[in-house]
Amino acid sequence: MRANDQFDFASKIAVVTGAGTGMGRDLAVQLATAGCHLALGDIHHDTLAETAELAASAGPDGLVISSHVCDVSDEAGVVAWRDALLADHDTDHVHLVFNNAGIAGGGSFVLDDRDSWERTFNICWSGVYYCCRAFLPLLIAAPQGHIINTSSVNGFWASIGPTRPHTAYSAAKFAVKGFTEALVTDLRLNAPHVKASVVMPGHIGTSIALNSVKVQGGEIDAGVQEVENAFRNTAPLTSAQAATVILDGVAAGEWRILVGDDAHVLDELVRATPEEAYELSFVERMLSEGALPGLVATLADTALD
Known about the structure:
The chain has a single domain (8-300), classed as Rossmann fold (3-Layer(aba) Sandwich), CATH 3.40.50.720. The chain has a seven-stranded parallel beta sheet, with helices on both faces. The chain has helices at 22-33, 45-58, 75-89, 114-140, 167-190, 208-215, 222-233, 239-251, 261-272, 280-288, 293-300, and strands spanning 13-16, 37-42, 65-69, 96-99, 145-150, 194-201, 204-205, 237-238, 256-259. 50% of the residues lie in helices and 13% in strands. The protein is an alpha/beta fold. Helix 4 runs parallel beside helix 5 and helix 6 runs antiparallel to helix 7.
């Protein structure tokens, strides 16, 4: 896409899921700065309210910012949010939908609790599906629209290292990636003014570790906080930097948005030797190339010496 064809966020309406913290919050603030009206959703009322305040402070006067407490894994809740959005913004359309909400958990299909596995899968995959079902008609009703679905490097590499399973999150993120890629053709044929992008971040300094424990109903103890701090502090990109990469990609019309140098390195390695992707030698090569060292060390506790 040529520079003068870039998507202009000013005066558009954007839906952002998982807006309470992390990349969702920073997407909201940066969109507001660009003059974009916002419909913000999150499962946590307190952090959602904080994001709405930050976005209002960052944006120009007259910006419409609505917020709605919503569990995206509950289709009825998503539909209720959509209906409230239409009233709050006095509109019959939206221009952008950022399906950003996600949690971790249910790492082992063999050993972990089924409820934890399905909770993770349903937020990370079903949330994207339900929001696309609910909001796609509103995107089609707009002069131009864009769906942005957040997958992960775990959408093409189902691992965080060879010593810890990572099944629920990876399965969901593979589903998000495949669905979004399939939408590219579907939309081109049946709604060509609506675009779709899949976002695949590497290790980003967000609060996903802490938020996952909260949503899964776990206890926030010193150990959880230690993992949270290590995950954030070892990340090569902040959530604000990641949000900028995502919005630049959307503005340029990119359908595939890799976020972070580690995501680019890992993508190249998996494509080059897919049959070796789950071997210890692959992780050693991945780390030698500078991909995900903090993530592997923090979450998988992998010993390579």
